[in-house]
Amino acid sequence: MAASSEEWTSILTPILSGINRYNPNNIECLEMYVQFQVENPSVYNLEANLSLMKLYQFNPNHFNVDIVCKMLLKSIMALPKIHLALLISVLPLNQQSNEEVVKINSLCSHLESCSFTEFWSLVEECGEIISKVVGFKDAVKNYIAELVNITYQTIPVPQLSSYLGNMPEKELEQFAVSNGWKINDGVVFIRGQEELIKPKRILAKIDFESVSNIISSTR
Question: Which residues form the PCI domain (predicted)?
């Protein structure tokens, strides 16, 4: 029977404590936890993944590129947090040029630079490994939606569809509703844009003593 999130917390606590995090005997357990993460979209633990990556660095004979790719893809799901860069920084140097690792790093770069067409094209190339990470595409689409929310007041439906990997019309309509957007005559009206550009009134509370000090200093 597979362990639950609560059980994994109990398992990981001693593993990630003190010098024990450098024990190579923990590699197999941490790899199993990576598999648990990729099967459960809401589960993600950067500390555990960094510890495993560090163990690979110290024990190159245990290096598992499939597990590494899964950790990197999970870190992309955490955008805008820059977790992928942290994981890459402790990846053994001789593995940073691995073809799959380079592709996943490029996926993140395309997202961070809002090069969505290039991103979705590369997703097709990485289809096999991405298919092993449940919820990856949904997480990315939600991240793109956040960018759209803070960038656009309105956006044409075809443009938004392309940003979201050529999302079909019916799916796009449902996606718009879930994000609080409205579609009218081929244009998507983004929720919250008015609040973002509306000037805010700032009220400052100044006590009597502060005012007295200011007046005294001008005499």
Answer: 44-206
Residue 23 makes CB contacts below 8 A (sequence gap 6+) with 15
C-alpha–C-alpha distance, residues 69 and 104, integer Å: 7
pLDDT digits 0-9 by tens, 113-142: 999 999 999 999 999 999 999 999 999 999
Strand-pair partners of 188: 155, 183
**CA distances to 47, 125, 160, 219 from 215, in Å:** 54, 69, 56, 7
String of DSSP letters for 5-26? HHHHHHHHHHHTSGGGGG-GGG
Q: How far is CA 200 from CA 148, 151, 193, 194, in A?
A: 22, 18, 14, 12
Residues 6 or more apart from 172 whose CB is under 8 A from it? 157, 160, 161, 164, 183
| Band of pLDDT at residue 154, cut at 50, 70 and 90 | very high
Q: Which residues, 6 or more positions from 153, have their beta carbon under 8 angstroms from its beta carbon?
A: 189, 190, 193, 197
Distance CA 52, CA 90 (A): 10
- Distance between CA atoms of residues 96 and 103, nearest Å: 11
Going along the chain from its start, the domains and CATH numbers come out as 1-146 (1.25.40.250), 152-219 (no CATH)
| Contact (Cβ atoms closer than 8 angstroms) between residue 54 and residue 22 | yes
Place of tokens 């803070």: 150
Let me know how long the chain is: 219
DSSP symbol at 133? S
